[in-house]
Amino acid sequence: MVPIQMVDLKRQYSKIKPQVDAAIQEVLESAAFINGAPVQQFAKELEQYLGSKHVINCANGTDALQIAMMALGLEPGDEVITPSFTFIATAEVIALLRLKPVFVDIDPRTYCIDPQAIEKAITPKTKAIVPVHLYGHSADMEAIMDIANRHKLYVIEDNAQAIGSHYTTKNGLTKKAGTFGHIGCTSFFPSKNLGCYGDGGAIFTDDDAIAAKIRMVANHGQSQRYYHDTVGVNSRLDTMQAVVLRIKLQLLDEYITARRAVAHAYTSAFAGIPQIIAPYEAPNQLHVYHQYTMQLDGADRNELQAFLQEKQVPSMIYYPVPAHRQKMFEGMTDLNQHLPVTDALTGKVISLPIHTEMDQDQLSHIITSVQSFLN
Ligand SMILES: *Cc1c(COP(=O)(O)O)cnc(C)c1O
């Protein structure tokens, strides 16, 4: 059996090697390493895929979030509501810009921000909400946009883990995750569902004025060449990454199908195991399974991980310490704040390998290993 990895990028590359190698070779020969034609071509193709009016590329997902917050003109001391149960980048950029992170709890089924908790955390200083579509499942965007509209708040979606996911509103309108809020942000880190071969990210919006501001902030605050109207950053997607992304965007829906097949095989195999709570799929959403993260109830997580490791089955804990308990936020938030769902789930979640290249032997081996530990 081919050794099992959390994500198998080598095997994925081997299937697209001829196209990728040719495209990279072309970039080498063109020497247009920065702002080559494929950079804009990719942005246009992603606009089409997402159904978003503007896609602005940038250097990584963390920059995408930072640029989004800068473009909205948030000021030091403004409060930004976000889940604590996320990758640190979401909250880190809030603090970096001297905004105040306000951490709230999540829905135990979806692992995403709880709209009711948002409503309770709103103060006169609240300016924005940053929901995170964790593990590939979108937050409840209809409820969140309703709250945001009533309180005149901005919404920046952290879509780093859910590109390609979609959500259907009560009126039957289906839109891609990341396109409900004022701004959506994503990452093309290699292991993400749409990953490049280095760092990359993108910001999307339907608002022309916000898009213009984002382009300016991402490019040294420049309105026209050598005229700098605002303090910005330097954040670009390079041409090598754009050619890889153009190839992989064509395959994204196939990749999502492959991930979902693995997830559904796990979920049906574990259905009879009372100690496993499988990931939830809201009926109005497409879960794209960036991670297959289940909850253990009444089983020892460390022992399961050790057992799986012995069987050459990797597993991960995303994330062992929630953001609201991280030392970096000392003085900005109460590190002892109790977020019951977040604090409980931090001790219960475990993620199994999931990627686009899992074969039947590997899948059966992972399933049998989990079953034999828990039976
Ligand atoms: C990966 C990720 C980011 C950051 O993306 P980078 O490209 O690594 O900077 C932000 N938020 C979430 C939820 C992520 O998973």
Automatic annotation (TrEMBL):
Coiled coil: none annotated. The active site is at K192. The modification N6-(pyridoxal phosphate)lysine is found at K192. Keywords: Aminotransferase, Pyridoxal phosphate, Transferase. It comes from Chitinophaga lutea. GO terms for biological process: polysaccharide biosynthetic process. It comes from the Bacteria. It holds the Pfam family DegT_DnrJ_EryC1. The keyword Nucleus does not apply. One of its GO terms (molecular function) is transaminase activity. This is DegT/DnrJ/EryC1/StrS family aminotransferase. The keyword Transferase applies. Gene3D superfamilies: Aspartate Aminotransferase, domain 1, Type I PLP-dependent aspartate aminotransferase-like (Major domain). Belongs to the DegT/DnrJ/EryC1 family.
